[in-house]
Backbone:
């Protein structure tokens, strides 16, 4: 049976503190040798993922900005993808709203709800909050669908969620930021649509694995055959009600390597 691997990045494939993936080397080699699509499924932007793929040495489909869109390299595995919209050198399936719509809401509510969005932060502030380097910050600000933000007053969260609902938007929590996004998108919906697409392309059922560590990964974990939680940097685990959930023994990329080797 064909397989797909969906993976979160920060705190899962990448270590929380230094963004390293060195300890995943053995599993990466096994995935490449087996020809299994490794689908980064992340809150990161297209620019961020493309740069990371270059460093990892892969050219695979990927899901960006918390399930907002799936990008597939043109001609991937020889598939005819002409039925999908073209975006640069990729084909795209869009699940989210435009960044302009998201920013309209953010700017209306940022003061009354004590939000500080990525679009308002200086590069220096983002470096301080994330530990990213200057180049990575530039990539992170090239957004198409969602706005990450810091909530200075947590008591405003419920009111903010209600307001977002009236705009057909929602608020979700990632590893470092909250995110404003379309009400009708999440990693789970993107995973479902991606699995359906690959089953059509392969003309057979596929087996799916997902690895994550944060609240915004739960929807992804709920819709795969083998859901895996990676131990957090502080030694805790994401709490879920997902049946048959697997847990890594190690944190970050070492835990990712451990679990991928177990199932690929």
Residues:
């Amino acid at each position: 049976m064909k397989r797909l691997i969906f993976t979160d990045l920060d705190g899962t494939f990448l270590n929380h503190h230094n963004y390293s993936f060195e300890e995943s080397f053995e599993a990466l080699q096994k995935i490449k040798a087996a020809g299994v699509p490794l689908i980064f499924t992340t809150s990161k932007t297209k620019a961020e993922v493309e740069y990371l793929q270059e460093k990892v040495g892969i050219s695979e489909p990927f899901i960006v900005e918390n399930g907002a869109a799936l990008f597939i390299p043109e001609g991937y595995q020889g598939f005819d993808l002409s039925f999908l919209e073209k975006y640069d050198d990729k084909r795209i399936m869009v699940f989210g709203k435009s960044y302009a719509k998201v920013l309209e809401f953010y700017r209306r509510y940022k003061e009354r709800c004590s939000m500080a969005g990525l679009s308002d932060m200086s590069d220096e502030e983002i470096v301080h909050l994330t530990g990213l380097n200057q180049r990575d910050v530039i990539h992170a600000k090239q957004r198409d669908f969602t706005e990450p933000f810091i909530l200075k007053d947590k008591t405003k969260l419920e009111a903010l969620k209600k307001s977002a609902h009236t705009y057909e938007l929602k608020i979700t929590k990632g590893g470092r930021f909250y995110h404003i996004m379309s009400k009708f998108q999440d990693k789970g919906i993107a995973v479902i649509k991606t699995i359906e697409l690959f089953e059509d392309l392969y003309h057979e059922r596929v087996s799916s694995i997902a690895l994550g560590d944060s609240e915004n990964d739960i929807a992804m974990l709920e819709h795969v055959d083998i859901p895996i939680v990676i131990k957090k940097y502080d030694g805790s685990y994401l709490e879920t009600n997902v049946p048959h959930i697997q847990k890594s023994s190690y944190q970050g990329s070492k835990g990712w390597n451990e679990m991928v080797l177990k199932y690929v």
About this structure: Residues 187-202 form the longest helix (16 residues). The radius of gyration is 18 Å. The chain is about 35% helix and 25% strand. Residues 126 and 186 are 24 Å apart (CA to CA).
